[in-house]
Amino acid sequence: MTFARSIDPGAGQFTLSDQDFEAIAKFAHKNFGLALSSNKKPLVSSRLSRRLNKLNVRNFDKYLASLDAPGGEGERSELLSLLTTNVTQFFREPHHFETLREEVLPPLIEKARSGGRVRLWSAGCSNGQEPYTIAMVLHQLCPDAGRLDIKILGTDIDPVVVRTAQAAQYPDDELAQIPAKYRVKGRKGDDSHMPEVIRSLVSFGVLNLIEPFPFHGKFDAIYCRNVAIYFDTPTQQKVWAAFQKSLNPGGYLFIGHSERMSGPAASHLQSAGITTYINSSAGSRT
Prior knowledge:
disordered N terminus, Chemotaxis Receptor Methyltransferase Cher, domain 1, Rossmann fold, alpha/beta, single chain
């Protein structure tokens, strides 16, 4: 089966047929867990047209074949970026960080001061603003957190945004979103980077949430906000269940304002506020 649609060399455009769109939708679901509804077809057509024109690829079936070819990892990442939107900011949905400050972190800091292990995860961290926000709240409460066994992990499926997060450099208008009480002075003349004392609390990695998680220990809090909106209901429920199993008893899960908890995990995750859940399941704490 082929999905050839030649691009008009003059216009640099091609028409995405229903067959073409179905092929991309199947690929995106299989590899990324994304659910592309038919109303996304015009957007996908526009973005893919620009991409194929840039690559000088003149029909769609050749592009599709390149995604599965050896060495196609880079183009798969490009496709993922085309199909999703990385919208994030520091202290987005601030009530989640008030809960972190007032309810989640105080007992965890006490646990760490007693020699315990504390792990926090930003799943779908995009350009890094979310895990760095967690780190700023932690540092404000516990300036010596770097000397304790407290770690923050940021992961995303897109290696491009993970590299941006690791670079920790942001424009002034984004840094201006940080409330004054959480701002930390960095090195003189280096105001565009996250200060080292904040950066040192966070590590980053590439991770696909629809694949088995590679972790041995469990987390005390997981942020996964505005990621599951890209998944269909069965995929969402699998991800919620995987998160629940990755949480310590009493651990917190924060999800996006337009997302809803459902499936088997819902019986173990009790509502603790707006899109905030506590793992009520008994089990070994790590």
